[in-house]
Amino acid sequence: MFNLTGDQYPSAEVLGNDLSPIQPALYYDPIENKETNTYTLCRVPPNVRFEVDDMENEWVYSSKFDFIHGRYLAGAIKDWPKLMEQAFEFTRPGGWVEFHDFDMQFYTLKGAFKRGSPLDEWTSHIVQGLKKVGMEPEPGPKLEGWMKDAGFTNIQQKVLPIPVGVWPKDRRLKEIGALDYHQFQEGLEAISMHILTNAADWKPEEVQLFLINVRKELKNPRLQAQHNFHVVYAQKPLEEER
Questions:
Q1: pTM, whole model, 2 decimals?
Q2: C-alpha–C-alpha distance, residues 73 and 102, integer Å
Q3: Is 162 exposed, middle or buried (0-12, 13-18, 19+ CB in 10 A)?
Q4: How many whole angstroms separate alpha carbon 89 and alpha carbon 150?
Q5: Crossing angle (nearest 10°) for helices 118-132 and 171-199
Q6: Of the candidates 47, 113, 180, 189, which lies 20 to 30 Å from 107 by C-alpha distance?
Q7: Could you report the per-residue pLDDT of 202-215, keeping only the tens digit for each?
């Protein structure tokens, strides 16, 4: 996101914010070279800079933004209405905000996924654990309402079904499903261990045993599970429109 924006709008100033100092000095161009099947290593554009900060703290920027973007904040934000209010305050009149996030509930149209299965139970435990510590686990379906309450207008929402695995026939969805499956499997233990041992008082060995069945279900080619991803963008009214 940061590199694409910086390259596409060289006259803009792009500021990236994260809780941890994970910002790269180099990145791989997301567009694959079809002739060599490789990706080009690029430097971060000169108009892009990063800061380490907590976006739930009071915003103290000296100027306002034309565009504010946030995504993958499920389980990381306690007070979403306040976040949207601050985003509204620091967006220039006529500017835009855009947020992307999940609905954690898995479902299937024709597959073997069922309520009460290990994957469904995992979702329930994670959602309950995050709520117990005051975090919002499923912001996706609520983004539109929060934006409206903050004062934004021209709100548009897109709900995208994200498959888990390579079961879709559509080539693009198959690629998305492969990536979603990979990131889910890679992060499953870390996410589960952190939330279930801290918020739900599970023992580490209990988490490990529970995840055996979750992983087994995820590997079932007939599972055909998917979950929704919400993309919502909105505009701050001009002064004369307010």
A1: 0.86
A2: 9
A3: middle
A4: 9
A5: 50
A6: 189
A7: 999 999 999 999 99
